[in-house]
Amino acid sequence: MPCDSDYFVRELEINSSDTQLHTLKLHQKSVGDVNCIVWDASIVLAKYLEVYNLKHPNFLVDVKVIELGSGVGCVGLTAALLGANVTLTDLPETLTILNDNIAFNRDTINSSQGSVTARVLNWSDKLDISANDYQLIILSDCVYYSKSIKSLTQTLVELCGDSTEIIQSQEIRDTDKQKEIWNCYLQQLQMEFNVEEIPTSQQHMEFSSRDIKLLKITKK
Prior knowledge:
Elements: E1 7-15, E2 21-29, H1 40-55, E3 64-68, H2 74-81, E4 85-90, H3 95-104, H4 106-110, E5 115-120, E6 136-140, H5 149-159, E7 165-171, H6 176-192, E8 193-197, E9 212-219
Parallel strand pairs: 3-4, 3-6, 4-5, 6-7
Antiparallel strand pairs: 1-2, 7-9, 8-9
C-alpha cells in the first residue's frame, strides 16, 4: 500500500445524482511513467460519465464495463461508482496501484450498486476475453507509442461485439510526432469502427478542453 513520499492523493468529486456527491481518492506517484498518475484526459472522461449519468440516471447500473490501460483507475472507478460492474486492466507492474486504489475507495463504491476488480491485460497477448463479454469499453490517453497502435486496435476489435460501445479520451499533445501517432491511430481505427467526436457542449462545463478529444466508437 502506498505510504511514502513517492505517492500523493488526488481527490475527484463525482455526483452520482442531483443529491449525492462522492469523493474518489486516487493515489498516484509524484514522479513516474505514464501509467501511474492521473492524466487530464481521464478526468475529462470521468466527468463526462458523470454528466451523462445526471441526464440519463442509472445508465451504467449493472452494465459490464472494461477499461483498457487503466493506470491508477480514475475512469473505471468512476464508472463503478455510477453503478457499473467494472474490470480495470493494465500491465502487471500497474496492478499494485490499481488494487490499492480499489481498496482505498471500496466503501465509496459499496455505497453504489457497482463493483470493480483489476486484472492484467497486455494488448499484444492472446486475449482470454470474448466479444460481447462487455457492453462498454473505456480508455483514456492510451495512444502514446506507434508500436502499440496495431495491438490496441486489434484488442478493441476482439473485445467489441455488435452492440458494444467504446468511449475514448485522448489529449492531443503539441508535438509533430504525437500528432502523427494520433492520426495514424485514427486511420486504423476508422477501418474497423464508426468514430464520432463528442462535442464539448455535451461534456462537463469545467472539465473539458479543445486539446482533449472525446470519441464515441462503434463497430462497423
